[in-house]
Design a protein that fits this description.
CATH architecture of the largest domain: Roll
Shape: elongated
Order of helices and strands: EEHEEEHHHHH
Mean pLDDT: 84
Low-confidence stretches: none
Helix content: 25-40%
Number of strands: 5
Distance between the termini: 39 Å
Length: about 160
């Protein structure tokens, strides 16, 4: 896809609702979400695609929204932390997997992707699947244990 050179009008499905927005071609998906679309849940950590704090699901796949040019969302499906039901990230809170909360939205979105694809957890260790999400506060023990418990609960109720 060739990048546009002037403001672009985008239309896409955001958290289950159709949205239309005009933005500059250099805007990142993260800028679009936090700015004109007023969804502050997706956090900017490093701005370089290293930490995973800005992870959203783009057409069902986890991506670092700080690296995605906004025009790539045109015609796509985007899901942010605001789309998750409270019970989806309650396991993170109950398991002590959060402290400052900067990484939590990205962790929760990656966990949702794993939850939707249970075969991934059978083929790869959870620590590998979560490797793109960095946490500076809690370490990873609480995060991994909370996610394991949540995924086990999902399998038990499926």
């Amino acid at each position: 896809m060739t990048p546009p050179t002037s403001d672009v009008a985008l239309g896409f499905l955001l958290n289950g609702s159709s949205v239309s927005v005009t933005c500059a071609p250099e805007d990142r998906l993260l800028d679009l979400l936090r700015g004109p679309l007023r969804l502050p849940g997706t956090k900017e950590g490093c701005g370089e695609g290293e930490c995973g704090a800005c992870t959203v699901l783009l057409n069902g796949l986890p991506v670092n929204s700080c690296l995605v040019p906004s025009y790539q969302a045109d015609g796509a499906t985007v899901e942010t932390i605001e789309a998750l039901a409270d019970e989806r990230h309650a396991a993170l809170l109950e398991g002590g997997a959060t402290q400052c909360g900067a990484c939590t939205p990205g962790v929760a979105m990656t966990a949702e992707w794993i939850r939707r694809h249970p075969a991934l957890g059978k083929r790869f260790p959870l620590s590998e699947l979560m490797a793109g999400n960095l946490c500076r506060c809690t370490g990873y023990d609480g995060i991994l244990k909370s996610l394991e418990a949540a995924l086990t609960d999902d399998e038990g109720t499926a």
